Amino acid sequence: MGTESIPTTVESVIPPALVQFHQLDKLRMLARANSLWPMTFGLACCAIEMLSSGCARFDLSRFGAEVFRPSPRQSDVMIVAGTINKKMMPAVKILYDQMPEPKWVIAMGNCAISGGPFVYPGQYNVVEGADTFLPVDVYIPGCPPRPEALIEGLLELEEKITGNRRWPRVKPETMVKG
Fold it and tell me: Measuring CA to CA, which of 24, 105, 135, 177 is 20 to 30 A from 8?
């Protein structure tokens, strides 16, 4: 009566169908992470750096994010690039709500992260960070951050989606100076 009814291995506890669904889910998340479609959406000077990351010199398409979509219904990544004014905040929220699930948000630049140099006592117009009204997944600091930083931010988002990193991080001491 005692030991026959107690399962002894994990395979006897977890049905094989659940293991197959888990593998399928991992494959689906890998496909999503390698084909991110950012929205063409910029609020200030960081948008110039965001758009230049798609040009030939930096070639964002190497990492699967080359298709900047003109509509929120066709994109899955919102890159908030620049200063968010309180008058613009409802429009940004509407664009975010129009994006299909799953969706991710990247805050690019000091203004999108914390309001930047425009926050001071008595200010009335600047939102102090996109995370006050949006769920931000990746923060990219800088004023404005370089296109390489945006590429690193997209790789961080891929790592967050899949759980592992496709490209190794570059350590500053191994970089060639010249």
Answer: 24
**DSSP letters of 80-126?**
EES--BTTTHHHHHHHHHHSPSS-EEEEESHHHHH-GGG--TT--SB
What CA–CA distance (Å, rounded) separates 162 from 124? 40
Round to whole Å and give the CA distance between 55 and 146: 13
Q: 91-130: per-residue pLDDT in tens? A: 999 999 999 999 999 999 999 999 888 888 777 789 988 9
pTM: predicted TM-score of the whole model, two decimal places: 0.80
Please measure the distance between the N-terminal and C-terminal CA atoms of the chain and give it in whole angstroms.
Answer: 76
Q: Please check whether residue 144 is in contact with residue 116, taking contact to mean a CB–CB distance below 8 angstroms.
A: no
* β-pair type (138-140, 104-108): parallel
Exposure letters 35-70 (e unless 16+ CB within 10 A, then b) = ebbbbebbbbebbebbeebbeeebebeebbbeebbe
Q: Two tokens at 81?
A: 């690039």
